[in-house]
Hints:
The protein has about 190 residues and is an all-alpha fold. It contains 5 helices and no strands. It is about 85% helix and about 0% strand.
Amino acid sequence: MSAGRILLMVFGGLLVLILMLGGCVYSGYNQVIEMDEAVKSQWAQVENQLQRRFELIPNLVNTVKGVASQEEKIYLGVANARKAYFQAQSVNEKARAAGGFELALSRLLVLRETYPQLKSDQSFLKLQDQLEGTENRLAVERKRYNDGVRVLNTFIRKLLGRLYAGLAGVEQAEYFEIGEEARATPKVEF
């Protein structure tokens, strides 16, 4: 074998080795970039669900409050008119109390005609369903985010993963962990 042929084989072997090594670096670099972008995308979904929660829940609570307060006023009006009738001493007082009772009943009947089923109980059930659905969506997105963080962080902690992450400027991501205040039982106030 001639020296030129040996040199060509060595050069070819080095070229193949450099190409393989370059391919591995290229592939690892792209892989860490994809994982980083996936984590960012998953975090954006968590933020979407948090935004939904912060916009939806107060509006639902206020809606339920409004419906319940309207019904409460009508029921209290009927109860107070009945009480006024039984506390009345004279015929004139009883007549006024009876008129008040009729007015309260007419409001109740109008509400009944407009809403054959009074709505506050349904509103409370819908609120409960929305609360549960919102929290479930948020839990799913938090899990997806944390799964993405686990995959990225595991890759970065591996021998070559650390090299690829350094080349790409990607750092370990933080898990979504709840704070102490979130561990307390939530309160919904009306």
